[in-house]
Give the backbone structure.
Amino acid sequence: MSEPTTGGQEIVVRVADLNIATGQQVLVTYGLGSCVAILLFEPQHRIAAMAHIMLPSLSLARRGDRPGKTPHTAVPALIEAMVDLGAERKKITGRLVGGASLFASLTPPGSIQMGERNVVSCREVLNREAIPLVAEQVGGETGRSVWLYASDGRAIIRSASQSEQLL
């Protein structure tokens, strides 16, 4: 399966990383398992932002030197960067992708999976920051990759178990 044709400059957002895109730029992150991609978009100024969240809280991190590692540091950093580029904070919306339980069969019944913990934490931080969550594709047992287009806010998701989807 080939990657979606972007027509613009791709900016890869790696694990525990974050970035901003404008114009024809496209943010992409590959191989989301239990990790969650937080996608932010401000339509008037066409500013997109993405973080590849790895952990649900700072207390689980060995070092806190990467702001994309948890939603508690990533979301405020993304909002600040978007506003610095001219985004209107009240027009920023959020979407979530990922949080799968790739090895659910190997964990004890009733235990909370890391993917689920990441999703809950991301939702809580977006709510605290008053960023409306307008869509999500989370959970399940398969990994995903996602492309976020700054030109129109479109998000395309690819996974091994489903055809390409627009979020």
